[in-house]
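re the bet — no i am not wrong, look at it urself. input seq straight from the record:
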Amino acid sequence: MKFFIDTADVDEIREAASLGILDGVTTNPSLVAKTGKPFRQVIEEIVAVVDGPISAEVTATDFEGMCREAKELHAIHENIVVKIPITREGLRAVKWCTGEGIPTNVTLCFHPLQALMAAKAGARYISPFVGRLDDISSDGMELVAQIRQIYDNYGFDTEVLVASVRNPMHVVQAALMGADVATIPYKVIAQLLAHPLTDIGLEKFLEDWKKVPKAD
């Protein structure tokens, strides 16, 4: 399973990249706004750090506007994947992008039928938002399992990109279900390695090492 980081903070991206586990980046307008920097500057800084898919989202809501923005975004760098919401106009834009050779990440997916339609339109990625479903007392990971089964049933190439990840268990469940990608906030990436028994074991090893006689 590929690990993307869900942020527009270049310092967080550099730190995650230093671990040797980072395959790509996802951003959205909210994350870019937190940086306080112009949008294009943020994307260009990310491109300089990560050699992998970088999702950048359109802000237009009409078909023509989405297509225009998609073309502009992908022109920044070949690694740019255009994020498009799963609306009627968005689905039309995904189909247009597919025809133009522009990869898309269909976002704000909350139902397996949305995922099915996105795949039929040629999306590179589908992003089920598991945490937001959990927030309304639904099972976000069940949606991932449903999408995985549908895509496997019919041989779709669209990759399942688990988004709105809130904790390490979302990542574990995504991997067990066969998701292609999990896009993970920096805070959660930092939690993936943590385990109390690892800390206790290391402390014990180091304490015992102090007892080993040192050569003269």
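see?? The radius of gyration is 20 Å. told u. also The mean pLDDT is 96. so pay up
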